[in-house]
Each structure stands twice: as C-alpha cells, then as structure tokens.
Amino acid sequence: MKNLTKTILTLIAAGLVTTGVSTQEAQAAKINGTIGFGGSVQFDQSSLQNVKAVTIWRNIIGTQGFSSVSTLTGNFSSFVSLGDNATMSPWTFNPSSDTNPLWSVGGFTFHLLSSHIVMQTPSFLNITGTGTISGNGFDTTNAKWAFTIPNATGTEPFLTFAANNSTVGVPDGGSTVALLGISLVAIEFVRRKLRFRA
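Below the sequence we write its predicted structure tokens.
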C-alpha cells in the first residue's frame, strides 16, 4: 500500500508540473496593436511610377536613417512614444525583398517578408505586405503593413508606413484543460484514500 501511495503521489506531481508547463505555452503573448511612421523618403529615381526602392528615410525634422512614430495603439504604447525615432533600413520593393529588420524602435523590430505593389502612378504609390514583429518579451507575431506616399519627389511630410497586427494568440486545443482535469482527479483520489485511513 505504501508503494501504491508513492506511485500515486509521483503521478500527481508529474501531472501538476506538466499542467504548469502547458499553461505557460497557452498564455504565450502575441503583439497586438498598430504603429505608424511619418517623415519623407528618397527613392532610387525621380519618377514615382518607375521607382523600385527606398534608398534613404528621413524623420519629420529631416534626420537620415529614421522615421518618426506618428501613431500607436495596443502593446506598442507601453514601449514607444509618439515622435520617437524608428531606425529604418534601405528597402527594395520591386522585386519584393526580404529585409531584416526593415524598422526597429522601442525594443520592437519588423522583419519584412514580402511586399506587393497595389498601385503605382506618377503621383501615388501604395504597397502592402506581410512580415513579423518581435521584441520586448513578446512572441514573434505576424503582421500586415502598408506604405503609401503621394509625392514623386518623396518629400511628402506625412508618408504612412503602418504595421497592423490583428492576430490573437492561438488556443492550445484543450490539452492544458485536460491535464488540469487529470491532476484534479488524481488529487481527489489521494484525498479519499487518506480520508479512509483516518
């Protein structure tokens, strides 16, 4: 009987440890919110309908290599402030190129995976795409993004480059609840055994 009690207690301990680990996985934190940038850019050529790359980014006061944070929601608000400088990398969008990181600010980085030109005319450019955002202890999170500029010289002071993550953490399919249930049944079993001994 003593060996049976030790075995049951060992199973309970293992179940509780497994439940704790599974619960941590189920509560993994994805990044939620949006972040937008303003400033100006210099393209690889002067005709907007033919440009293929951003060679220089400038923040709202003209400092090269940066954009200014212009909008914030969600998790970004806890680590970034309006007006902060985001470090920007040169970017070729035609053809689409993987750029890691395309931007970084406040401990977040954006890895550009792909881009798609939605509209490109002599007076307007709109590009959308996908990538991942990581940093500040959050899980790497898929994100949608967009870049819009309506000026052939790239001097529009309020270009929009926005990252929008609407992805929510994926549930673990019930394994955590099942492990918790098994642990509770085992605890009740041991409690009843101990009560009958008393």
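The first strand starts at residue 33 and ends at 38.
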